[in-house]
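Cross-check.
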Amino acid sequence: MIRFTFLFFLCTTHTLVMADEAYAGTAAGPLVYTLDAQQLEDAKRRVQAGDPQLLPAYRGLLHSADKALSTAPFTVTEKGVKPPSGDKHDYLSMAPYWWPDPGKADGLPYVRRDGRINPSTKDNDTDSKRIDNFSDAVGTLGIGYYFSGDARYAQHAALLLRTWFLDPATRMNPNMKYAQAVMGVADGRGTGIIDTRHFWQVVDAIGLITPSGELSAADLAGLRQWFADYTQWLMTSKGGHDEAAAPNNHGSYFDEQVANYALFTGDKALAHKVIAQALDKRLGAQIASDGRQPLELVRTRAYHYSTFNLQALFRLARYGEQAGVDVWFYPDAARPALRSALEYLTPYVTNPSSWPYKDIQGVAYEDYLPLMLQAEHVYGPLPHAAAVERTLRGHLPAAQDWLFWQVRGAGTQPGQPAS
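Predicted model, tokenized:
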């Protein structure tokens, strides 16, 4: 049964206090950084009105939020293997594409098989699957609370946040020293920093549930401090320096994480610096004039990695809106790099068999959908928008992304409300 129970609130009553108050929550919507407060408000009104385009996504959201309610709190201390430090509070993961060498009796050193996930890297001995499940659960509960007003969602999200970040017995240390280790090669690598890429959901969920009062002032301060400490580690560690220098999607995800956490903790100057540098360092270097992303096209999952990299760059563009850097229209308004990159991928949504590069898993509609919706919000409808939307609705009728970004009508211009 659909629940049309909504909690209306004044964000000025429960606003998350930030070091930089320039981007504080207002009565216009929740304090979010990756999602868009006005877009969420519009979607909430449409769901209230029973909009048939959004009801499948809303039902799916409630189903996922109810499922998340049943999850026990996640913690890095659950893992079965201790990291080299001997401290289970340190995050540990194994590089997913590395396998035992079949030509060696002990399998060492491991060898890389691009795009082929070693299932042993996703078990309970390490933290990579756990961090994804934690981030998804918190994000879903936060969105679920915002749309439904069900206090249980906020309560459980707050519990998950305190367990992962704050409780001395279970908290994660704010570093990724032992992320994406490779047996016989390295105890941890800078590439493992990409494992925290889903923390954008956590940051937005904090803002979404703050009006519930389930997070105390001490909780909020502790969460800001954790992310400030983690950002400091990212900016000063060898792993962080290595990842910042990565030319492909790893570098993009390093930048978008630093920008996101800097905005959350109030360091707008750092966010501005990282995003401004990314214009040439990421967009200029990664996206060809025709929209191709050559560094991602050489992968065995070329379509996936093309959209995967764009997701990081689109988030950078969102953070640029808040830090005073125009990423959306770089290098010029006539041919923005991000729009070109997405338009290059668009024809293959409706005709995936024509994709000219290798992808061992095929075109992933769920990777493309959030990009299309955000691009339409910024640039207006893309070429063949109606056919692409029909295809995506057919494959992903209940995707949460339909609630995040509102589809525009064919005649709607950027800046105008969705039809």
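The longest helix spans residues 302-323. Residues 1-27, 409-419 have pLDDT under 50 and may be disordered. Passed to J.P. for a second look.
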